[in-house]
């Protein structure tokens, strides 16, 4: 292939061309067969798959398995199975695609995939997080049946420090284009000039010619606003040699661009059309957002000229009970919870995330730190990516940048998290090499890395001089010294906190203590594997949420922070041993139910007026209870027990909560926040009586019958007066009928060893969550929940 570069100036003329769909993008997730184990003979078209399971992708076989103390994946991956598996699909390629380029796109396969078409290997891809694709055109039988087989090998364990899942866990598409088309990830859009009046958009477009002859073509790129109205246009002509890629640059002037920011994430898109004469032969869309940002060594981060603290959370890629299965509805739910908390940034820990995640960060207004690696050449666990480093890191990094560089949400490239090479001199050359790769593909964002070593002489990644932005993990005690120590450097707390909490569990008084032990030392936590949800238990390397936030909040030079983590994730329940199988670090639990500290962040980060009190109000008579309140937009909070005032309190200096010690008596605990004497908010918690009713609350009233859409139903145990029974642990059985199927259950308890795929779930501290997915039928869904000794409850969800 020849790669030629031409630059063509903007043309303003409006041309009229025939409009038709020139690129076919098909959902390729349906009608696959799957079998665990190794089945190399499945690549043959005459192979008998009668004992293979039929399924729809995305799929993760690990999440379907049982927890096993002796699993090879170990605790880091939540004691779930891995192994090998094969996927197979027979499909017909229309005869009239003969003159097209047909390719397959995988958004992510964990891991070591090998893809075969009609018995022929198309290639391997070790990296389980990378998006990749293959040209099928030379091998497909047009107008006839074809067989795709995908081998997935996640057998060599342990290979990760967190849960990865196994299988084709992200979407797959079939793409058919004409022989002249925009190449895969073939556009690169930058906004050279942005002001309120004007913007200049530069687009580099790789046009690909799969023909054996030269071709004249015309390229029209149209900027469309969010209502799909054309607001600017660039037109170029070119002549592309046979079998080559030609890079075309278009510069488009735009007037009065609406800026993208975290509160109004205004998105445009660029529709690029390729014409052969007047015939439309390809269309390709690229997201576009106008924003500018700056990291400053003294003033921190600014977005569009506005000083903006990065209120970030780190997220792993799993979707709780769905495992690694990617689903845009699951991602939207996660991000909505984070947005409502006031978070404005996401760190893609510690690897490329899905297309849906990137798309939603653009749409919902998150600042993204996009991260490529958790290991380089030096391993963290026996079979991790270090084994593939030499052969694959260059291509993986390039593909990652090419895939994600048009997302306006992405504002930092992280080349690695807590990389071992920071401690030895080999780190210098590798950092420089990686930064160079990034810069060769994108110069508009800083290159960063999440570092742990703040002694300059010991940190070789820093010494490379190749980082534009220094990320530090867990250095809350030292931030104050950074402006002098790292003079002139731009600094971000790339990871912080790692406090531990179990939703709805509260240890009182002397039982509340900072996590006292070193990693791996004998267990001395609670016998039931819970951790108190007062924000007072932390890992020895971390800080409580409050300790950390105080240090970030008060340092202007600090661009912001990414909290470890927004959600609990499967695996890494450090420092708890088996049966703990999911992390305690989340602000929200694995089921998606917020822990109390969620409201501390909401009171600090969001514009919402907040008053939240904890704990619940079911204790032993006369027991001394710590009552905490998170609040904002008020001067004081007064607490009442059964109508009697327990006093007014207000936050002093840098306090982030207020607290009372209260002798328990059953009844009503009520908090009232006031500003200038006027009531702002009131909050009541009542002592709950006996469990009496299963309450079902769906997060949507209707879903689509598209086999993907999800509805999350929160199940709560209430007493006869509608109060949450905070210690209810009843087993609830579920039955789903109509247009949905149950795809996951979870109660957020880190040591729950029941299957995420069961038709029942034990409540944990009064609650659990059921996930129902459209099964394609156009019938309304009914969820029926039953528990011993109680009347069944039902809820209906429309399907349309
Ligand atoms: C960090 C690491 C994260 C996670 C966290 C747990 O050091 O970067 O991936 O392991 O610790 O506290």
Automatic annotation (TrEMBL):
Residues 694-796 form the Glycoside hydrolase family domain. Residues 187-291 form the Glycoside hydrolase family 2 immunoglobulin-like beta-sandwich domain. SUPFAM superfamilies: (Trans)glycosidases, beta-Galactosidase/glucuronidase domain, Galactose-binding domain-like. Transmembrane segments: none annotated. Residues 623-680 form the DUF4982 domain. Gene3D superfamilies: Galactose-binding domain-like, Glycosidases, Immunoglobulins. Residues 1-18 form the signal peptide. It comes from the Bacteria. InterPro entries: Beta-gal/glucu_dom_sf (IPR036156), DUF4982 (IPR032311), Galactose-bd-like_sf (IPR008979), GH (IPR017853), GH2_Domain-Containing (IPR051913), Glyco_hydro2_dom5 (IPR040605), Glyco_hydro_2 (IPR006101), Glyco_hydro_2_AS (IPR023232). Pfam families: DUF4982, Glyco_hydro2_C5, Glyco_hydro_2, Glyco_hydro_2_C, Glyco_hydro_2_N. Residues 299-449 form the Glycoside hydrolase family 2 catalytic domain. Belongs to the glycosyl hydrolase 2 family. This is DUF4982 domain-containing protein. It comes from Flavobacterium tagetis.
């Amino acid at each position: 292939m020849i790669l030629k570069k031409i630059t063509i100036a903007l043309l303003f003329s409006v041309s009229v061309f025939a409009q038709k769909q020139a690129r076919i993008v098909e959902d390729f997730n349906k009608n696959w067969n799957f079998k665990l184990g190794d089945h190399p003979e499945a690549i043959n078209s005459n192979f008998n798959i009668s004992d293979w399971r039929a399924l729809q992708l995305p799929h993760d076989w690990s999440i379907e398995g049982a927890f096993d103390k002796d699993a090879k994946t170990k605790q880091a991956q939540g004691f779930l199975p891995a192994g090998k598996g094969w996927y197979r699909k027979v499909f017909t390629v229309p005869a009239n695609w003969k003159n097209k380029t047909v390719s397959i796109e995988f958004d992510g396969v964990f891991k070591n995939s090998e893809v075969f078409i009609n018995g022929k290997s198309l290639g391997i891809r070790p990296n389980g997080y990378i998006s990749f694709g293959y040209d099928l055109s030379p091998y497909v039988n047009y107008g006839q049946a074809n067989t795709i087989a995908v081998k997935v090998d996640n057998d060599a364990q342990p290979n990760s420090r967190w849960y990865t899942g196994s299988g084709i866990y992200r979407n797959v598409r079939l793409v058919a284009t004409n022989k002249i088309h925009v190449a895969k990830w073939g556009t690169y859009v930058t906004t050279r000039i942005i002001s309120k009046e004007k913007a200049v958009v530069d687009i580099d477009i790789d046009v690909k010619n799969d023909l054996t002859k030269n071709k004249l073509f015309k390229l029209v790129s149209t900027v469309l606003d969010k209502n799909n109205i054309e607001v600017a246009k660039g037109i170029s002509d070119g002549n592309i040699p046979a079998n080559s890629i030609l890079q075309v640059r278009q510069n488009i002037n735009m007037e009065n661009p609406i800026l993208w920011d975290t509160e109004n994430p205004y998105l445009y898109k660029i529709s690029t059309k390729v014409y052969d004469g007047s015939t439309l032969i390809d269309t390709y869309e690229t997201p576009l957002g106008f924003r500018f940002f700056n990291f400053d060594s003294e003033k921190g981060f600014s977005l569009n000229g506005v000083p903006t603290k990065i209120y970030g959370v780190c997220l792993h890629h799993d979707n709780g009970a769905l495992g690694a299965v990617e689903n845009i509805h699951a991602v939207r739910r996660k991000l909505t919870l984070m947005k409502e908390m006031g978070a404005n940034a996401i760190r893609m820990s510690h690897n490329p995330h899905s297309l849906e995640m990137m798309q939603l960060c653009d749409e919902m207004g998150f600042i993204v730190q996009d991260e490529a690696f958790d290991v380089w050449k030096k391993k963290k666990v026996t079979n991790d990516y270090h084994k593939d480093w030499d052969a694959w890191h260059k291509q993986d990094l390039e593909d990652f940048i090419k895939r994600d560089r048009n997302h306006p949400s992405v504002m930092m490239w992280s080349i690695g998290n807590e990389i071992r090479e920071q401690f030895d001199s080999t780190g210098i050359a590798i950092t420089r090499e990686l930064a160079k790769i990034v810069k060769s593909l994108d110069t508009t964002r800083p290159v960063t890395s999440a570092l742990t070593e703040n002694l300059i002489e010991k940190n070789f990644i820093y010494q490379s001089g190749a980082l534009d932005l220094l990320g530090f993990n867990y250095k809350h005690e030292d931030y104050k010294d950074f402006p002098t120590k790292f003079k002139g450097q731009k600094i971000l707390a790339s990871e912080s906190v790692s406090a531990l909490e179990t939703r709805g569990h509260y240890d009182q008084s002397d039982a509340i203590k900072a996590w006292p032990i070193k990693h791996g030392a004998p267990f001395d936590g609670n016998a039931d594997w819970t951790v108190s949800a007062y924000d007072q238990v932390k890992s020895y390397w971390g800080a409580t949420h409050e300790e950390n936030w105080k240090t970030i909040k008060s340092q202007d030079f600090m661009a912001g922070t990414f909290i470890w983590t927004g959600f609990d994730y499967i695996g890494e329940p450090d420092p708890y041993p088996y049966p703990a199988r999911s992390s305690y670090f989340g602000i929200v639990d694995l089921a998606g139910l917020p822990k109390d500290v969620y409201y501390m962040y909401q009171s600090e980060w969001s514009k919402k007026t907040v008053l939240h009190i904890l704990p619940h109000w079911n204790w032993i008579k006369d027991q001394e209870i710590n009552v905490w309140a998170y609040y904002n937009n008020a001067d004081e909070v007064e607490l009442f027990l059964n109508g009697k005032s327990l006093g007014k309190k207000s936050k002093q200096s840098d306090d982030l909560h207020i607290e009372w010690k209260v002798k328990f008596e059953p009844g009503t605990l009520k908090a009232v926040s006031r500003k200038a004497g006027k009531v702002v908010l009131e909050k009541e918690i009542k002592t709950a009586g006996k469990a009496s009713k299963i309450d079902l609350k769906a997060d949507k009233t209707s879903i689509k019958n598209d086999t993907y859409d999800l509805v999350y139903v929160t199940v709560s145990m209430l007493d006869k007066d509608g109060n949450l029974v905070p210690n209810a642990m009843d087993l609830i059985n579920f039955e789903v009928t109509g247009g949905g199927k149950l795809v996951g259950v979870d109660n957020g308890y880190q040591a729950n060893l029941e299957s995420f795929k069961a038709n029942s779930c034990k409540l944990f501290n009064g609650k659990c969550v059921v996930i129902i997915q459209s099964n394609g039928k156009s019938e309304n869904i009914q969820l029926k929940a039953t528990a011993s000794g109680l009347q069944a409850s039902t809820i209906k969800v429309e399907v349309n």
